[in-house]
From TrEMBL:
Lineage of the species this protein comes from: Bacteria, Bacillati, Actinomycetota, Actinomycetes, Kitasatosporales
The protein's name in its UniProt record: GlcNAc-PI de-N-acetylase
Protein keywords: Zinc
PANTHER family: 1D-MYO-INOSITOL 2-ACETAMIDO-2-DEOXY-ALPHA-D-GLUCOPYRANOSIDE DEACETYLASE, N-ACETYLGLUCOSAMINYL-PHOSPHATIDYLINOSITOL DE-N-ACETYLASE-RELATED
Keyword ATP-binding (UniProt): no
InterPro entries: GlcNAc_PI_deacetylase-related, LmbE-like_dom_sf
Organism from which the protein derives: Streptomyces anatolicus
Length: 272
């Protein structure tokens, strides 16, 4: 069976490679249509240029940008609202237009926590994507955004509780640092109970592509963000850190003869 078309929606340039680079490369290698929408940063900025290189490495064509500003970097989209401050209806409308143009069978995005760090842009991108994935299939919503298209399933990129200890062994507490208040920060990682994970994907065969896409975000490497941390790891540690991806599936359409698209394992029909 042919691999299904896939649209990945993430908050910032580099999230697509870190969270779902293996699945994107895997589906592209199988001949599926793949595409990436990034919620923040604008065309002409350095990170948008790096995103374009990373997306091409993953076989996902040219990047698509919603054009909102990063919550912490206002110059990321001059003249635009921060993603978290923009009217929700406008953010959903912009994403619906991309979903209807790409017409993917599955959509991939952040989980409800926004991944391990709980970044507010990640959390809000999750909310916008969940709404847009449903709205795209309703013809009377956003009629100017194109003909209605309903993706079959939504996959949330996540981490199970059992994986966090191993990740800490590789990179230490830095992977889970987040600001709690202006006064202090504590190490904490957002993860889900293992039983909530519905797809565990071995992306080892596409690890070189995934790593190259991560390192294409050179400004993030230079400032010591996650791509920079990965750049400094030996190959064995990179493999341990990056060769598995975890997802939570939510069905959006009836699944007669369903298949778990990210793993190619057979799935029962809902309610069966």
């Amino acid at each position: 069976m042919a691999a299904p078309s896939l649209l990945a929606v993430f908050a910032h340039p580099d999230d697509e490679s870190l969270a779902a680079g293996g699945v994107l490369a895997r589906h592209a290698a199988a001949g599926a249509r793949t595409a990436v929408v990034t919620a923040t940063w604008a065309e002409g900025t350095r990170r948008a240029e790096e995103l374009a290189e990373a997306v091409r490495i993953l076989g996902a064509g040219e990047p698509r940008l919603l054009g909102f500003a990063d919550a912490r970097v206002p110059e990321s989209a001059p003249g635009e609202a921060r993603l978290c401050d923009a009217p929700l209806d406008e953010a959903v409308r912009r994403l619906v237009a991309h979903i209807r143009e790409v017409r993917p069978e599955i959509v991939v995005t952040h989980d409800a926590y926004g991944g391990l760090t709980g970044h507010p842009d990640h959390v809000h991108t999750h909310r916008v994507t969940v709404l847009a994935a449903r709205a795209a299939g309703l013809e009377q919503l956003y009629p100017q955004a194109g003909a209605a298209w309903q993706p079959r399933a939504l996959y949330l990129a996540t981490h199970p509780h059992s994986a966090v200890a191993a990740l800490r062994e590789v990179v230490g507490g830095r992977i889970a640092e987040r600001s709690v208040t202006a006064a202090h920060s504590v190490p904490e990682a957002y993860s889900v109970p293992d039983e909530q994970v519905t797809a565990t994907v071995d992306v080892g065969p596409w690890l070189d592509q995934k790593t190259a896409a991560i390192l294409a975000h050179r400004s993030e490497v230079a400032r010591g963000a996650a791509p920079g941390l990965i750049a400094g790891l030996p190959p064995t540690a990179r493999e341990r850190l990056l060769s598995t991806e975890w997802y939570i599936r939510h069905d959006l359409a009836p699944a007669a003869g369903a298949q778990c698209e990210l793993t190619a394992d057979p799935c029962p029909v809902i309610g069966g």
